[in-house]
Amino acid sequence: MTERILAERRGKVAVITVDAPDRRNSLTLALSGELAEAVAEAERDTGVHALIVTGTPPAFCAGADLTALGEAQEEGLRAVYAGFLAVARCSLPTIAAVGGAAVGAGLNLALAADVRIAGPRAKFIPRFLELGIHPGGGFTWMLQRAVGVQRARAMALFGETLDATAAERAGLTMRTVEGDHEQLLEAALELAAPAAAAPRELVLSTKHSLRLTLALTEHAEAVETELGPQVESLNSPEFALRLAAMRAAINDRK
Prior knowledge:
The chain is α/β, with parallel strands linked by helices. The chain has helices at 29-44, 66-70, 74-89, 105-112, 139-147, 149-158, 164-170, 181-197, 200-214, 219-234, 237-253, and strands at 4-10, 13-19, 50-55, 94-98, 101-103, 115-118, 123-125, 162-163, 175-176. It has 11 helices and 9 strands. Strand 1 and strand 2 form a beta hairpin.
C-alpha cells in the first residue's frame, strides 16, 4: 500500500490526512517531512483559512516509526518532530480530528493542534516509558497545558491512557462526535466554518494574539497587545463591507 500525506481543500479549509493505514499511520521520516510540507503549502495558499489534520481509519497516528527512532540521534529526532511541529507552529487555526489511537508522537500530533475533537474510538496513549523512550518534541509542555499538571504527570509518568470519554472530561478534547470517520470530519469542518468565513488576515492576527497573550500575567498587557490589531481591523475594507451589510439589513427590517 502507498504511504502518503493526502492534502485536499474543502472550501477554505485544508484537510491533511496521514494515509498509511497498514502501519496505523505511524510517521516515517519521509511522511513527517511530507506532513510538514503540506502544512507549509496550506499556509502559503491565501485561499486557506483553517487546517484540519486527521488519519486514515482505524488509527489517528500510532506514533513514530520505531525503526527510524532506533537509529535516530538528535538530527534524526528533529526530523521525526518536523511534521507535528509544523502543525504546532502553524499560523492558521488548526483542528485535530482524532478518530482512533493517538500514540506517542501521534499524541504529540494531536496536542499540536489548537483544538481536538474525537470519535468514539479515539484513544490517547503516551507509551514513551513503556518503550523505554524519554518523551520528546515538547510533549511534556503541550500535555501539561492541555490537561493540567496532575493528569499530565499521570500520563507521562504512569502511562495513563485516555479513551474518548475520559479525554473530553480531562479537557484534552473539546467534544466527542458519535459516528464514523466521515461524520467526525464533517464536525471538524463545521467547527472550522467561522474561520473559513472570516477575513483571512483577521483569523491569522487573532491566533497570533492568542499566542502572545497566553504568556502574559496582567490583563492590562493583553489590552495593549490586542489594541493595535483591533484598530487595524476597524480600518480594513472587510470590516467596512460587513458594517455596511449589517446597516442595510437593519434598515430593511424597519
